């Protein structure tokens, strides 16, 4: 899947006992606890580098399951994965752990995705970067056990599709992982997200699957990116999704001749790019197209529906080009999510449920001061049950307290947010999480900090230097943070959704 950059220049048999023991020694294997994904699931991509809360956007959009993009190494040759290659967001409970638990408490889950266009073009996709199969498998295991998830996604595009050594290592590592899971009674799934033609996988994508078969690696879902065809043709995006998925079905039937038609369709995933895709207006998925795709996917028994990306599901830039934060068409916020959300099946609504809200929804606080808001809850189904309240998403220098920290549904609490003198000026999303024995919900307070620190503490930007995700520089009176690997891209010229995040004047 693609992250947008200026001018689109950066826009896709048993294992030996020794190997099994090597993997098991890396991380202790807890008992199976995670709940498998539904047989049919809607899981749009969440752009994990934006600083937003996945739990909050999940609650706001109604998308109970998310595909989290992306995991990759910070530099080519490394065997350590980070979210978006940012060393500040390692695979640890401190990185999205609270959000993922909140989503799981609501009956949803996340699908961590490895790779993506940037990783696949810079050698930082984990199997391209790391040459040790067991270390790759250990990374996969760490993600599963850290976040207690049941599916991993491999987003393999462009250069990674031609890296035969990386392809072979990846599939061998998947087999090691699957043997570990079987030995520990743990159910896991693996999906491959691959680019497609309008008639099915190109030879490079098909070769990835053939190698998986050769290595004994089970691929549970093949997820087609039904966009960015770049063929200068006229497109009915819904019709092209159908022909692409039918082509994939035919290819899978040859790869897995023992599978029934229902099993084959149950191995198909579809990921759209909502609105205008990277090619331009000639490849636009409309809301009418989305409804057509939804109905067709239901009729075929497709496994997964997704789109790129949740943060684009709004009409903030009608008539514009593809962007990471809007669809480029006229629409209401969350229109595409509302079309696809009913696709998820196999979940049960809690008998006792509640809602949570924050009033006001936005507040401003000066450094050294505090502000308050009211957190209210209400019974939406069944009877009132105790609700535990917590706060996540707090930036450095900002603290929060709740009084009381637990209420009975229907009750309220006072949220106090305080900013120290060391707080950095800016606008942040503070997430208030509510959890009962059977349900979980979240609300968001948009907090603006004023009068905080803005000092240029980072080293000056150097045009010839290579920067990885999380590194900071000073340039033209501002502090900047790299979201992913970059070199030669000047801070301040890449746009709001480019590689450099503006941390403020200094």
From TrEMBL:
Gene3D superfamilies: Carbohydrate-binding module superfamily 5/12, Glycosidases, Immunoglobulins. It comes from the Bacteria. Keywords: Carbohydrate metabolism, Chitin degradation, Chitin-binding, Glycosidase, Hydrolase, Polysaccharide degradation, Signal. GO terms for biological process: chitin catabolic process; polysaccharide catabolic process. It catalyses: Random endo-hydrolysis of N-acetyl-beta-D-glucosaminide (1->4)-beta-linkages in chitin and chitodextrins. This is chitinase. The keyword Ubl conjugation does not apply. Its EC number is 3.2.1.14. PANTHER family: BIFUNCTIONAL CHITINASE/LYSOZYME-RELATED (PTHR42976), GH18 DOMAIN-CONTAINING PROTEIN-RELATED (PTHR42976:SF1). It comes from Streptomyces subrutilus. Pfam families: CBM_5_12, Glyco_hydro_18. SMART domains: ChtBD3. CDD domains: ChiC_BD, GH18_PF-ChiA-like. Residues 40-330 form the GH18 domain. The keyword Nucleotidyltransferase does not apply. It is an enzyme of class 3 (hydrolase). One of its GO terms (molecular function) is endochitinase activity. Residues 1-33 form the signal peptide. One of its GO terms (cellular component) is extracellular region.
